[in-house]
Design goal:
The structure holds two protein chains of two kinds. By secondary structure, chain A is an alpha/beta fold. Chain A is built from six helices and eleven strands. In chain A, 41% of the residues are buried. The chains are: A alpha/beta, B mainly alpha.
Chain lengths: 222, 547
C-alpha cells in the first residue's frame, strides 16, 4: 500500500505567476526513504511544504496513509495530517529544553507513556545526557538529532526532511549522514528528504526523484 | 476551479483569530465611514453660516500653524540629530537621550507653563522687575496666538524628527558620509549635499508625525485662543450642540489628512535608496575648541528650554499647591486614569496580538487588515471622537427597542453616555501604538517555530500560547507600556468622550489650566510627565535585557 500518493500536483505563489510545480505525481511505500533532488529554486522544498499542509496547491490531490489530505474540496490542517518535519534550520523552540522540545508533540498521550517515548527517542538519537540543555547550548549536529527526535516522537506516518545537512560543517557532514541513515533504518521510518547533493541520496535513500529546471517532469531513477 | 480554490484557501486561513480581527477592523472603520457619510447629507443652516463667515479663517489658521511648525521642527530636529550622530562634544552621550525628554511634556502643559512663566506675574518678568529694576515690554515675551503655538509645538514635538533622523544617520548612512569626508568635502557641504538628501525619508517621516499631532491638537490651540478646524469641532459640538456640522468639519480635516498622506508618499517617491545593509555605526568626529563649546551650548539651550526649565517651574508650583491639591479626590483621579488606561491598553494589545498573528501569512487580505486596524493613528483625536459619538448615537437608536424591552425607558442614551465610548475612542486612536511593536516581535521570531509546532500537532491557538507568546513577551510589554502612556497623556478624546463627572489626569490638568488655576495644575502635570519618563526607562531596560 502506498503511504504517500501525489497526483497532478500544481502550485504557484499567485494567480499571476507561472507555477513553480506543475502536474507533479509520485507515490511511495511504507518504510522507504526517498530523496528529492534538484537545483535551488526548483520547488523541491515546496513539495515538502505541500505534503505538510503549510502551503496549498492550486490543483491536485495528496493522500497520506490512505486519507485524502488535500484535493479540490478538501484541506486538512497541518496539525491533523500526522506528518513529521525536520526543518532546514531545525526550528527547535529556543525557550524550551531538549526534553520539552521532544515532549511538545506528545500531549495527546497519557503521562506515563510520554515519559517512555521521550526516553526511547533520547536513546535513539543518543542525546540522553543532554535532556536539560537548551538549543543554544548544543552543536549543530546535536540540534539536528534533537529536531529528528522531536519530529519522530509523535510517530508520524511520514517524516519530511528539508536539506538536513545544509547547516553542518563539511567535515562533520559525512559522519552525521551515516548516523542518520542508521537511525532511519533502525526506526523503520518512511522518509522524504530534499537535498541538492547526490551523495546524500546515495548514502541514505532507497531511490530518488530529480526535479529538473523545467520542473514539469519528474524522473525516477532507482 | 478558482472558486473551489478560494473556498479551500478560506478553509486553510480562516479561524477564530480572523473573526476577531475582522470585528476589530469594523469597529475601527465604522466611525470613519460615519464621518464621510456626513458629506452626503444636506447641510443645515448652521453650516451655511460657518462656511460663509468662519471656515476660511479656520482652514487658514490650521495651514499656517502646521506649515510653520513643520519647518521649525524639521530644522531643529535635523540639526540636532546630525550634531549628535556625527560629532563628539562635551556631554554628547547625555544629550543623545536627553533631547527626547521634551516629548514627555504634553504640549498643552508646556503651553500653560510657558504662558504663565513668561507672563506679567511670571517668574521671568517679576525677577527682572524686582531684582534688576528692568521693565521689559510684555509683548515681547507673551506666548499667545499662532506664534506662541508654533513656539510650543516646535520645542516639544521636534524629538519626533530628531529621533527618527538620528536613528537613520547612526545606523545606515555611514559609508556615504565617510566617502564624502574622504573625498575632502567640508562638513557643511557633507551635511547639505549628502546628509540632507539621504535622510529625506526619515525627515519626512518624523515631520508627518508632527503634522498629525498639530492637526489633532485641541489643548494648545484652545488655550491660546486660536481657531483651527480641531477647535471648531469642539465648539460646534459643545457650543452649538450641532453634531452634524462638527462631523462636516471632521470630514474636511480628514480630507486634509489624506492630502498630507499622499504628499508624504510623493515626497518619498523616487527617494527609496538602496541603502547598504551592512550597517556600521557612524564614527563621531571630535569637535575641538570653540566648535565643541558651540555644539554643547546649542544642545544645552534646547534641553533647558524644552525640558528642564518648564520641569523645574512645575516642581516649584507643585510645592506651593501640594497641600491643597493632594487629597482623596486626587487619588480617585489617578485611579480613574489608570483604570481606563489599563482596560483600553489591554483590549488594544489583545487585538494587536490577534491581528499580527493573522497577518503573518502576508496574504493580500491580511495586509489590508493590518492597514485598516492601524489607520486610527493618523486620524486626529477630535475626528475620531466625533465619529465614535455619531456611531454610538446611532447604535443607541438602533438598540432602543431592546432598551424599552428591558424597561429602560423610551429611546434612552445608554451606550453614548457610558465609558465604553471613551474606550472605543482610545482603541481606534492607539491601536497602531500597540500593534507595531507586536508586529515587529512576530517578524523577529519568524514563522518557523509556528510551523514546527503545527507539524507537531498543535493548532493555531495552542501554538500561540505555547510557542509564540513566550517568544514575543518582550514586544508585548513594550507595546503595553507605550500605549498605556499615550492614553494617560491623551487629551482631546478624553475631553470629548468621557462620561459626565469622569476625569483623567489630562482632562483635570486641562480644566485647572483653563480656569486659570495654573499652579494647581502642576501636580497632575508632573504625574503625567513622570509616567512618560518612567515608561521610556522601562523600554530601554527591556531593550537592554533582550540584547
Amino acid at each position: 500500500m502506498s503511504i504517500v500518493e501525489i497526483e497532478g500536483l500544481t502550485f504557484s505563489y499567485s494567480f499571476k505567476e507561472a507555477p513553480v510545480i506543475e502536474d507533479f505525481s509520485f507515490s511511495m511505500k511504507k518504510g522507504e526513504v526517498v530523496g528529492i533532488l534538484g537545483q535551488s529554486g526548483s520547488g523541491k522544498s515546496t513539495i515538502l511544504r505541500l505534503i505538510a499542509g503549510l502551503e496549498m496547491p492550486v490543483k491536485g490531490n495528496i493522500k497520506i496513509a490512505g486519507k485524502v489530505v488535500v484535493s479540490d474540496n478538501v484541506f486538512i490542517h497541518p496539525e491533523e495530517r500526522g506528518v513529521g518535519m525536520v526543518f532546514q534550520d531545525y526550528a527547535l523552540f529556543p525557550h524550551m529544553s531538549v526534553r520539552d522540545n521532544i515532549l511538545f508533540g506528545l500531549s495527546h498521550m497519557p503521562r506515563s507513556e510520554r515519559k517512555l517515548r521521550l526516553d526511547e527517542m533520547l536513546e535513539l538519537v543518543q542525546m540522553g545526557n543532554f535532556e536539560k540543555r537548551y538549543p543554544h547550548e548544543l552543536s549543530g549536529g546535536q540540534q539536528q538529532r534533537v529536531a529528528l527526535a522531536r519530529a519522530l516522537a509523535p510517530k508520524p506516518n511520514v517524516l519530511l526532511m528539508d536539506e538536513p545537512f545544509s547547516n553542518l560543517d563539511a567535515d562533520l557532514k559525512e559522519s552525521i549522514r551515516e548516523e542518520l541513515g542508521i537511525i532511519l533504518k533502525k526506526a523503520n521510518i518512511t522518509c522524504i528528504m530534499v537535498t541538492h547533493d547526490r551523495n546524500d541520496v546515495q548514502a541514505i535513500c532507497d531511490y530518488s526523484i530529480v526535479i529538473g529546471e523545467s520542473n514539469t517532469n519528474s524522473i525516477v531513477n532507482r | 476551479m478558482r472558486t473551489e480554490l478560494i473556498k479551500r484557501k478560506i478553509k486553510k486561513e480562516f479561524n477564530g483569530w480572523w473573526l476577531i480581527s475582522l470585528i476589530g477592523a469594523v469597529v475601527i472603520l465604522l466611525p470613519i465611514l460615519f464621518i464621510f457619510s456626513s458629506l452626503f447629507l444636506e447641510p443645515n443652516e448652521n453650516w451655511m453660516q460657518i462656511r460663509q463667515y468662519l471656515l476660511k479663517n479656520y482652514v487658514t489658521n490650521t495651514f499656517i500653524l502646521v506649515a510653520f511648525t513643520a519647518i521649525f521642527t524639521a530644522i531643529l530636529g535635523v540639526t540636532l540629530a546630525w550634531l549628535v550622530a556625527a560629532y563628539d562634544f562635551p556631554l554628547k552621550s547625555f544629550f543623545r537621550w536627553a533631547l527626547l525628554l521634551p516629548l514627555s511634556i504634553p504640549t498643552f502643559i508646556a503651553a500653560y507653563t510657558y504662558r504663565t512663566m513668561l507672563g506679567y506675574t511670571g517668574v521671568v518678568q517679576s525677577t527682572l522687575r524686582n531684582h534688576f529694576n528692568y521693565q521689559i515690554n510684555p509683548e515681547w515675551l507673551s506666548v499667545s496666538g499662532i506664534g506662541g503655538a508654533v513656539f510650543i509645538f516646535t520645542l516639544f514635538l521636534f524629538p519626533y524628527v530628531y529621533l527618527i533622523t538620528r536613528a537613520f544617520l547612526e545606523s545606515q548612512s555611514t559609508s556615504y558620509i565617510e566617502s564624502a569626508r574622504l573625498l575632502g568635502r567640508k562638513p557643511v557641504t557633507v551635511f547639505l549635499k549628502v546628509v540632507l538628501p539621504l535622510s529625506r525619508p526619515a525627515i519626512v517621516g518624523g515631520t508627518v508625525l508632527v503634522f498629525y499631532e498639530v492637526l489633532g491638537d485641541y489643548g494648545v490651540t484652545s488655550y491660546l485662543g486660536i481657531h483651527t478646524i480641531s477647535t471648531a469641532i469642539f465648539q460646534t459640538w459643545f457650543g452649538m450642540y450641532d453634531v452634524d456640522s462638527a462631523m462636516r468639519f471632521a470630514a474636511w480635516l480628514m480630507i486634509i489628512i489624506i492630502g498630507i498622506f499622499i504628499l508624504e508618499r510623493l515626497l518619498r517617491q523616487g527617494r527609496r535608496y538602496h541603502l547598504s545593509n551592512k550597517s556600521r555605526p557612524l564614527v563621531a568626529v571630535k569637535l575641538k575648541g570653540l566648535a565643541g563649546v558651540a555644539a554643547f551650548i546649542y544642545c544645552g539651550v534646547v534641553f533647558l528650554i524644552g525640558f528642564l526649565i518648564p520641569f523645574i517651574q512645575l516642581i516649584t508650583w507643585a510645592f506651593m499647591t501640594f497641600d491643597k491639591v493632594w487629597d482623596a479626590t486626587f487619588f480617585t483621579l489617578i485611579y480613574q486614569t489608570v483604570y481606563i488606561a489599563v482596560i483600553s491598553t489591554g483590549i488594544i494589545l489583545i487585538l494587536s496580538v490577534v491581528v499580527a498573528n493573522v497577518s503573518r501569512s502576508h496574504s493580500y487580505l491580511s495586509v489590508i487588515l493590518s492597514k485598516c486596524v492601524t489607520s486610527g493613528y493618523s486620524i486626529p483625536g477630535p475626528i475620531i471622537a466625533i465619529g465614535v459619538l455619531a456611531m454610538f448615537i446611532y447604535l443607541d437608536q438602533w438598540l432602543a427597542p431592546l432598551y424599552s424591552a428591558f424597561g429602560l425607558g423610551e429611546a434612552p442614551l445608554i451606550l453614548s453616555l457610558s465609558i465604553v465610548m471613551l474606550i472605543v475612542g482610545y482603541f481606534i486612536r492607539f491601536m497602531a501604538t500597540g500593534y507595531n511593536p507586536v508586529e515587529v516581535g512576530f517578524e523577529k521570531v519568524g514563522i518557523r517555530y509556528m510551523e514546527a509546532s503545527r507539524m507537531l500537532g498543535k493548532n493555531v491557538t495552542k501554538t500561540f500560547f505555547k510557542v509564540d507568546l513566550p517568544l514575543i513577551k518582550g514586544s508585548i510589554i513594550s507595546g503595553f507600556v507605550l500605549t498605556f502612556v499615550e492614553i494617560c497623556k491623551e487629551l482631546p478624546l478624553a475631553l470629548l468622550l468621557r462620561p459626565f463627572n469622569f476625569d483623567t489626569l489630562a482632562t483635570k490638568t486641562y480644566q485647572y489650566a483653563n480656569d486659570e488655576q495654573i499652579y494647581e495644575a502642576s501636580i497632575s502635570s508632573l504625574l503625567i510627565i513622570a509616567i512618560s519618563i518612567l515608561s521610556v526607562i522601562i523600554i530601554q531596560l527591556i531593550g537592554k535585557r533582550v540584547k
